[in-house]
Design brief:
- It is a single chain.
- By secondary structure, the chain is mostly helical.
- The protein is built from six helices and no strands.
- The longest helix has 26 residues, at about 45-70.
- The chain is elongated, with a radius of gyration of 24 Å.
Length: about 180
Amino acid sequence: MSFSLPSRAPSGPRRRTLLAGAAGLGLLVGCSSGGEGSDASGGSPSAAEKARAGAARDSEALVERYDAVLTAHPDLAGLLTPLRAEAVRHAEAFGGGKRAAKPSSSPSQSPSPSASASASPSGGPDSVPTEPKAALAELAAAERKLADRRGKALLEAPGELARLLASVAAAGAGHAYMLTEGAK
């Protein structure tokens, strides 16, 4: 006597139907009238624009922090100048960078205390540690903290901005590693 399994008719929609429906829904969402960078009402900035502006400000504040450390420790210029230049490019990629683009003309010239103290992730130029290793460690902590924040923010960001945040967060994590190694 042979045993055969009963034929089971699927209850509900088939897999192909669901996939086709999901693809159609994706096309509808992708073709919406409001773009990634604009609000449908045209009046107020979108969440993506606000996130971009905030990320630009964060990068500019990080550049100011680099400037403060370079002012306090000009002998670290070999390590910090390329990392500072990357932070400037990050600010520009987010649509900022006007303030941060020009480096201080001389190591003795310090950034304006009001801008650095209010925008800097780790405090103003007066809070730069006197020991170079401690200054590098503090700068590494600022890079790491910003990279972590950007990593969390990319989960809420739309496609292109999420990719940019991911890329810049990865670069920031690399900078933190290089600064940590430089502090050893």
